[in-house]
Amino acid sequence: xxxxxxxxxxxxxxxxxxxxxxxxxxxxxxxxxxxxxxxxxxxxxxxxxxxxxxxxxxxxxxxxxxxxxxxxxxxxxxxxxxxxxxxxxxxxxxxxxxxxxxxxxxxxxxxxxxxxxxxxxxxxxxxxxxxxxxxxxxxxxxxxxxxxxxxxxxxxxxxxxxxxxxxxxxxxxxxxxxxxxxxxxxxxxxxxxxxxxxxxxxxxxxxxxxxxxxxxxxxxxxxxxxxxxxxxxxxxxxxxxxxxxxxxxxxxxxxxxxxxxxxxxxxxxxxxxxxxxxxxxxxxxxxxxxxxxxxxxxxxxxxxxxxxx
Length: 309
What we know:
Layout (H helix, E strand, L loop, with lengths): L1 H21 L4 E2 L4 E2 L5 E2 L5 E3 L16 E9 L12 E2 L3 E4 L4 E8 L4 E7 L10 E7 L2 E8 L5 E6 L11 E6 L33 H4 L12 H42 L5 H31 L9
Parallel strand pairs: 1-11, 5-8, 7-13
Antiparallel strand pairs: 2-3, 3-4, 4-10, 5-6, 8-11, 9-10, 9-12, 12-13
């Protein structure tokens, strides 16, 4: 009888321990010390960088909407993605420009994790980042107001190897500005794993077969020169066409561009406004060159459509 009771007691203790291990007690960190410039932290492993609840970025006349998201981080969210160790419960978030975004970050592991954004304007956000950090199991909440432009921001955990092992995502503002590779469940890996057989070695050149026999027609010696002339001619035509179209578009669009720059740089210092303007002009020039190149390929018939599967 005593042996049976001991076994039952052991089973109850094991079951209780298992339940507690699966459901960690999440501690909320909400008593953080404000160190200025949106930097808050406590002595128990909680930190917020880039807190901004009311200062509007350049180009935002008002907050477009208030959005709250809840992000969970932990080892268990990596199980569906082979090759990863840590993960977020979601890896992509979409909001409007000028959104006031409040992030509740829940760390379900017994280690330190972060939810960090890069690429924000430095005149508002120190180091250009918004940063939530917590040693878990715990949760922490931070708020920021997103800029007016359409952009895709990288989100990740900056603890050593956590990003490489799965903790990365992207925040898409408005239409976004593209996407990032290797986002679990969202985009293809930058360097996919390949466990197939190694490629076969190339066959050695058969010198006898390559020898020109009497009566055979030798390849024309001027073919390489002709190809070089054709390529240089295409390049010259491309740049001349790009220059002409660029001048026309610049002449017509200059008033609109100046108005947009003035709107976006409102409230910035002279140095920040200059940096922001140069980046905007560079992005616009690159987009124009890509557009003109695509148009020329379409006109010359060199832009072939991909075959249907």
